[in-house]
Amino acid sequence: MSFESRILFESSQLRIGRFRCRAGSELWQTENYTGQFPIVVFPRIPVGIRQAARPCVIATPIHVMLYNSRHPYRRELIDPRGDISDFFALGPGLIRDIGTSANMQIDEDCLSPFASSHSPCPSRTYLIQRAVFHLVESGQSVDPLFVEETFMSLLPDLLRDSWISRYIPTGASSGTERGQRDQVESAKEFISREFRQPLKIEDIARVADCSVYHLCRIFKKFTGLTVHRFLTHCRLRSSIEEVMDGNLPLTRVALDLGFCSHSHFTNAFRAAFGMPPRQLRERPSTVLTKGPLPQNGKNSGN
Length: 302
Description:
The structure is a single chain. This protein is of the alpha+beta class. The chain has helices spanning 92-101, 123-137, 144-152, 155-164, 175-194, 201-208, 212-223, 227-245, 250-256, 262-273, 277-282, and strands at residues 3-10, 14-21, 32-33, 39-43, 47-51, 57-59, 63-67, 72-76, 83-90, 118-120. Helix 5 packs across helix 7 (212-223). The longest helix is centred in the middle third of the chain and has 20 residues, at 175-194.
């Protein structure tokens, strides 16, 4: 099968599913449409996404992708594995409640709540999402209330950024701004493909066709992150699957991802996710028992 879209968990206001699209699928050649409800997508590997009336974005695990109901879009192949992502479809009641609690203005039918195509995804939010997804994908008996409550605790900050995001310029843009955005997306694409290699800022700037100084300035303007932090997040978020799988020694995981040592990897992992990689490998359930995320709109590893 060239693609798969499978629902793994469903309640009255939340659906959790996985999407897999191979490189040879016909979906790469045609316009795609989202389903009945708005969705929040957590990309696992880089893929180009061009939503209707919005510029092309290199979707990576550093951001969540946001789609309104029945939104047309096209995808562009970057990784030979195709498109691998997890999605969460939000019912109108859930969107309305989140909007009310956060004083957000939302359209009446709650089908087009997102003003931007993507939003920053803090590190611990990403880790909790992966833990929730592993839980529902495992086939174990799962308490629906626990799944819903855990995921809902992640939503307010993710959705708030989609309305007031300072990282994603919206509306009409000048030629200069469009050019800068294209340069940043080129840099993102290169980093998200090559993050396992020892990258130099000069190499990234060359791909983006700009000076090092210009790249550092516009990269943070459009992503909210420095180039180095974006690279580190790519490495760390990719490490989660390898740490949880347990097939490789942690030292090998660290070196394969571009970290200079096991201790360098461990310190970066702990700073981003609030626990060392060995704890995630040996006691993954602790991800979901560390208590709620802070309510000030930030958590570790932004």
